[in-house]
Amino acid sequence: MENKWLTPIQSLATSGARAVESFAIDGARYLVIAQLARDIPGSPAHMNGGDSDIEAQRFRWTDDAFVAAGTLPLAGGEDVEYFEIGARRFLATAGIRSGKGPYAYDCEAIVYEWIGERWVPLQRIPTFAAKQWRAFSIDERYFLALAQGVAIDGVAPEHPRTSRIFEWDGERFAPHQDVGGLWGYDWIHASFGREHYVAYADHVCGSTIYRWNGASFESFQTFHEKGGRTFRFFEADDAWWMVHVNLLSHTTLYRFDGVRFVETQRLGDAGCRELCMIDGERGRYLLCLRFITGTPQAPVVETESELFRWAGAGFDRIETLATSAATDATTFVEGGRRYVVVSNSLSRDLRFGTTSTVYRFHG
Q: What strands, in cross-sheet order, belong to the sheet with 337-344?
């Protein structure tokens, strides 16, 4: 059955794709895809195996499609974050590991700056099992939050292991605050009224929303269950809402009651990894990217992701789309049309070589 809301228009050959980031510089549209690993011929399939000495793929939008535009070094790629400070453009990369097994989880994250139509390394930051960067600003202060860490028997980090927030000092990003956590996955910034918040998702230590006090981030509300992956915040119908993804249990919509976030609606069971909020011409949409269920030792690849539409006090599911261990999505507008790019990370037989997809969005 043909999808009503998302029409696939292009397949991109990727390998263990973990993140997609689209941005525009001087009128040109770019896409960067972080990749975890490539398959090793003759080796058994395993979602945490493979050759992680790989690169991030770069594309440029040309004639209504993406064309290859080179690569960036990014072993064990998990994330790419584009952001701007004034007229300067930056790209922060994060990789969880390097090698072909055994793997090294002490790595370096590189912050690049766009100079002379190319990405030039500006800063190298020691990381341990890095998963995701998130850039945000509060007033005239610029921050870069790193979610990192993993708890694996026999792996002892040499680099700082906890998730951290860095602040721009005019020349580089300097450490601002450590928040603990052993297995960080994501940060999301949000503001409501005059308050600023950042939400941190952790796989083993619970996920926490922090509130800015003018000097640092203080714990505001914690979700203690394991499996945290990400958050999204939005305002609608005179209320403040939040969606929290837990890979191991469920995806949940919360409403802020003036004191805390209160559970309002279950949007799906275990298996969701990431969210993409889409502000379309006909409403607000939420794309839930479904990754795996089961365990890393016996994973079940999720082959459908879900599209929801805001219905006034909650979301209605309006469509499913075929994906393959989906990990991320990004949306953009070009030529008056909205597009969505979804990264797929594993095939049904747990091989990394699987395509990611560009869709035209009809909402």
A: 6-15, 353-361, 337-344, 326-334
Rg (CA), the chain: 19
For 80, 140, 148, the CA distances from 151, given in Å and listed in that order, are: 23, 36, 11
The angle formed by the CA atoms of residues 153, 326 and 268, to the nearest 5 degrees, is: 90
Buried b (16+ CB within 10 A) or exposed e, 13-51: ebbbbbbbbbbeeeeebbbbbbbbbbbeeeeeeebbbbb
What integer is the mean pLDDT of 282-288? 96
According to DSSP, the residues that pair with 44 across neighbouring strands are: none
Rounded CA-CA distance 27/30 in Å is: 10
pLDDT band for position 306 (cuts 50, 70, 90): very high
Beta-carbon contacts of 167 under 8 Å, excluding residues fewer than 6 positions away, are 141, 142, 143, 144, 173, 174, 176
Q: In whole angstroms, what separates CA 313 from the centre of its chain?
A: 26
Rounded CA-CA distance 149/128 in Å is 6
Per-residue pLDDT tens digits for 149-195? 999 888 989 999 999 999 999 999 999 999 989 999 999 999 999 99
Query: How far is it, in rounded angstroms, from Cα 309 to Cα 319?
Result: 9
Q: How many residues are present in the chain?
A: 363
The encoded tokens of residue 270 equal 């275990």
Q: Say what the pTM is.
A: 0.97
- Residue 194 neighbours by CB under 8 Å, 6+ apart: none
pLDDT beyond 60 at 1 = no
**Strands across the sheet containing 55-61:** 17-25, 28-35, 55-61, 66-73
How far apart are the C-alpha atoms of 125 and 168, rounded to whole Å? 13
- pLDDT over 90 (residue 297): no
Burial of 1 (0-12, 13-18, 19+ CB in 10 A): exposed
Average pLDDT, the chain: 97
Q: Is pLDDT of 66 > 80?
A: yes
Which pLDDT belongs to residue 33?
99
The span from the CA of 78 to the CA of 97, in Å, is 9
